[in-house]
Amino acid sequence: MKETSTIAFHSDRVPARFLLPDGSQTTKSLQVRFDPLLGTSSRIAEGVILPKADEQALTPLQAADANCPFCPDRISRVTPKMLRSIHKDGRLERGESVLFPNLVPYSQYAAVAVFSSRHWLPLNEFTPQRLSDSLSVAVEYVRRVHSVDPSAQHCSYNINYLYPSGGSLPHPHAQVYLDRHPTTLMRLQADANSAYWTAHRRSYWEDLVKVEEARGERFIARAGSTTWITAFAPLGFNEVQAVVSGCETLLDLTDEDLNALSVGISRVLRWYESIGYNSFNLALYSGSLKDSSGWRVHLSMITRTAMLPYYRSDAMHLERLHWEATVDRLPEEIAADLRDFFGG
Ligand SMILES: [Zn+2]
Known about the structure:
Elements: E1 10-13, E2 16-19, E3 25-28, E4 30-34, E5 41-45, H1 55-62, H2 72-78, E6 92-94, E7 97-101, E8 109-114, H3 128-148, E9 154-161, E10 173-179, H4 184-200, H5 204-215, E11 219-223, E12 226-230, E13 237-244, H6 255-274, E14 280-285, E15 298-303, H7 317-321, E16 326-327, H8 331-341
Helix pairs in contact: 3-6
The structure holds zinc ion.
């Protein structure tokens, strides 16, 4: 344990006291927690409640949509193609997955990977096979772009599912980011990783999963090269993280790694569905394709407010303008629930 004692989990329990309408004094629990890598803080506050899923609210989205650009009769006619220097046919396909450039340049090389020809998938049908095929075409896309333009070195694989997550189309799809600039969070992580690597000559993420497995409170499971944990200081509701041991960038991921990630993601999504959520975000962060010593490919997934006609967004002033997440449940409770879904 001495080797991993460089990771510190700081939290502060802050009792919030006030008088109830009947005059009696009450104390609500609040924990402020500090991310062990970045030092950023998160809040776990008693009484934060998000509405749960309502099946009826999904009915309009489940119906066939003649205008959906990702459905089989339109996808080959209305979606863009890659430059010929990247791929001669313009789109990458594997299994049910089809990848093509994003019409909106969220990054220099932004791509969309549609999961399935089916317009609607409940969370329990994000199967390991569909996820693995999607991740495979994303990795292939990154490999092809980087070989043509080595300056595009910062990449990630992401999912927005349903409108509360920021997704603009309900047809399930992932988004690949590849750019000369990292996102803010990836830059902060890269800087902190470099400092940790310089100080200890060990990977922060390898140390993190070792210490989390030894402590047990937030540890969910190991599966192949992947370790699944809950975040000590969450960025959102029901956050689950995974670290891929030995892999610095998306280009290091083997088929076995992709399979382990896919099985784990599908288990987490089944759990999300079981607790009444249907909208989620996912990010799989790669180290820079140029220099990534110490980085490990890692993943974060969170639930968003369930899809409802009039919903309370889970992102309020704290999340958007203070960069501070406030969530309802302790990560240690979430890990205990999830161990069942990982067969633990
Ligand atoms: Zn569709």
